[in-house]
Amino acid sequence: MNEHGVNRIAPIANLDLVAVVMEKLVNRQDGLPGLAVYYGPSGWGKTTATVAVANRSRAYYVQMRSAWNRKTLLEKVLFEMGVKPAGTIPALLDQICEQLAASRRPLILDEFDYAAAKDGMIELVRDIYEGSQSSLLLVGEELLPNKLKRHERFHGRVLSWLPAVAVTLDDAKKLAPIYCPEVVVGDDLLSHLVALSHGSVRRVTVNLVNVYDAALIEGWDSVDRAKWGDRPLYTGDAPKRRGAI
């Protein structure tokens, strides 16, 4: 990727949505639940948006892994907090609850589908919330709400269910200066990239990088769909099988 895109975040729609729900959580009235769930298909920009909002709101951010057990999750959260883990699972849980309550900072758990598949993990995260009364944002794939429905005591504590939105032409216009800098990309080509993406921010950014690379080779300072022609673009589909020779 070109160096112009490093450490720059485009203010696309999903970023605004997550920022609003985080503000709603942090500033909620007494008595309202403090959990929110942000969900959507892979590639729709959820992690990028939540990391950006975590930085803005000083939230603790932890991206879960499939191999984690309950103790691993607690240790990773404490590591993110800068607190040395000490003792058993109940002791680690108490450390987290105390730190969240004292700091009043939110906690974001990304890839939360891994927790939703394990009853013990769900109850542990509920314990974190109940013990701290902090704000928790849980991020996962599009079926995450359905996975959480069977956990009634957890499901009922969710204040907001936030679906990620598909990438738009307006988003693509904001992404273009970052991933295809110093090249004017025509709206017709951007619209084509959005149509090919099937909602995925990632596919649009990959194709903008492809356009940028082609522009460097061809010496373009602008490109529209006619100039792009029939050059290949990334769709996310598996390559077609070659015919027998």
TrEMBL record:
Residues 34-144 form the ORC1/DEAH AAA+ ATPase domain. InterPro entries: AAA_22, P-loop_NTPase. GO terms for molecular function: ATP hydrolysis activity. It holds the Pfam family AAA_22. This is DNA transposition protein. It comes from Crenobacter luteus.
